[in-house]
């Protein structure tokens, strides 16, 4: 962006960097939120202001204060992995298994299945009517990578032992009669290198 030196659309920035447009858009969102990059809402363009270039880019020789900002990725092991994913010829996505416990009518899971099609998604809920709605939603969107089923989250399938890479739920754990049993089941169905996310109000 410093080399471009003018407001640009996401597509132009991605092409100049040789990176995937979707990933660049997500990154730009974080940069705008952090008041590093500026966004013009009317033109939908992004620009890196000149006064920030000096501290972020070595365009003024080795005396630039950019050396400080360059130290951040140097000490962050995940930085290079993220950069590789953003590249045009980088990984296309992980073939992971994801389970949402308490998926309700499937709005969130169908959105994930649409935006990130490589993983395989499973949604469970104790409400039969909610699962019926979720299944209809997936069918209407022609989603073949998501499956919904009615089940008690404290008594999940025996063959789900160490099955999932990611399990998440929203406003569920604190609402069940035995959260301890639910958490034990979640631990059982997760693989050894696992991710569990619980959100709530």
UniProtKB/TrEMBL annotation:
For this protein, the record's Gene3D superfamilies field holds: Vaccinia Virus protein VP39
Entry superkingdom: Eukaryota
Q: Which residues form the Methyltransferase domain?
A: 98-196
Q: Domain S-adenosylmethionine-dependent methyltransferase Rv2258c-like winged HTH spans what residues?
A: 8-58
The record, for InterPro entries, names: Methyltranfer_dom, SAM-binding_MTase, SAM-dependent_MTases_sf, WHD_Rv2258c
Instruction: Name the PANTHER family on file.
Output: METHYLTRANSFERASE TYPE 11 (PTHR45128), S-ADENOSYLMETHIONINE-DEPENDENT METHYLTRANSFERASE RV2258C (PTHR45128:SF1)
What this protein is called in its record is Uncharacterized protein LOC100377503
Organism for this UniProt entry: Saccoglossus kowalevskii (Acorn worm)
| Gene name as annotated | LOC100377503
